[in-house]
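The protein record quoted for completeness.
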Amino acid sequence: MSDPADQQAENTFIGHLLELRSRLVRSVLALLAGFAVAYPFSRQIYAFLAAPLTAVLPPDSKLIFTSLPEVFLTYVKLSMLAGFFFALPVILYQFWAFVAPGLYQHERRLFFPMLFASVALFFGGAAFAYYLVFPAAFHFFISFAGGDITAMPAVRDYLSLAITFMLAFGAAFQIPVLTVVLAKIGVVSVATLKRSRRYVLLGCFIVAAVVTPPDVLSQFMLAVPMYLLFELGLVFVGMTSRTAETAAGAAAPEAEGEASASGPVDMDQALDDAERELSALNEQEPPSSTSKGER
């Protein structure tokens, strides 16, 4: 016969698995719906994504494809990516609905703002890459064309490069959220983060060298924002710490007021008790002169 506690734990685990499957199915359906909405506009999406490159191409250059299904597969990938962005609110809600019941109240108050900030920073990083990094980096790459070298980028290669850039910058812009979360859960302290500035700067350049193409401009344009975002994370941690200290300081005077209100009453009562005990002792003690005369 099985233990009731083990049976309950097994039922709970199975219930979590069933809920997880339900959340995943809903997320996949939302993704497919987003893909269906985005695919008719796949040409416009690609034209928008390729605009920073086509703006710097020489007049006699254009994008090419070297295999028959390449353009079709490119449109499918872009439609899936756009569909994911369209379905992102539904996916985030399903994720939140699955993890929220297992969080404490203070964890919920921290989790939701951090999730919202993470999404906003990711889109901010992708926009930073598209509007600022793409024009400068592509102009640098195309500058080597000329003479016997003609720039004719392949559609597939450009899509891979553009998505890598945008994902790298979107991930790099998560540094403030990561800094705040690590400080909040006690993994690192603000003082430790401040002492580690030089190592963080070195790590930013190492990460930029790994995830970007091998040119100094792209690496510099990723490493510098990463370090500035680290400093921004320190500012956020300091602001939240000061807010917590202010709340604690506001609660301290109230506690002191309660102690001061009850303190004088307790002290007066203690003095009265001591005075009564002293009077009782004086009444019980016989005079010293009487005791000498009797002897």
Remarks:
- The chain is about 80% helix and 0% strand.
- The two ends are 90 Å apart (CA to CA).
- Residues 8-171 form one domain.
